[in-house]
Amino acid sequence: MSDAQQPAVQLNHTAVYASDRQLSAEFLAAVLGLPVGAPFGPFLPIDLGNGVTLDYYELRDKPIQSQHYAFLVPEEQFDAMIARLEAVGVTYYADPHHTEAGRTNTLFGGRGAYFDDPDGHNMEIMTRPYARP
Ligand SMILES: [Fe+2]
């Protein structure tokens, strides 16, 4: 899609379910090097660079369905993010099915890795977006 065809509609926020919103938001924020925002009602927000807010929302009496969230991150910050995962003992993987532990991938000419958040959401960091045909 060319710039001239960019849609005017943008993702603004989405809820991320967590059994402990503070724990989960702080985990992701620490890995990505971002601040956790002030609570907004039942939500605990993390603001991302493209204007999208992840609103952590506590779900206590239901199982949490694992979702996939992928973050485009600067190449120069990727190693620090991997180091933070290693520092807190969270295993990262080269692949979305978590079979290649302790490795990163080089998809689309960039680098990427997958890791679980405290509730099992499959998080991905990558330095280049997926190239779709
Ligand atoms: Fe992905």
UniProtKB/TrEMBL annotation:
Domain VOC positions: 10-128
PROSITE patterns (alphabetical): VOC (PS51819)
Pfam families in the record: Glyoxalase
N-terminal signal peptide: none
InterPro entries: Glyas_Bleomycin-R_OHBP_Dase (IPR029068), Glyas_Fos-R_dOase_dom (IPR004360), VOC_core (IPR037523)
Record CDD domains: ChaP_like
Name of the protein in question: VOC family protein
Organism expressing this protein natively: Streptomyces bambusae
Upper classification of the organism: Bacteria, Bacillati, Actinomycetota, Actinomycetes, Kitasatosporales
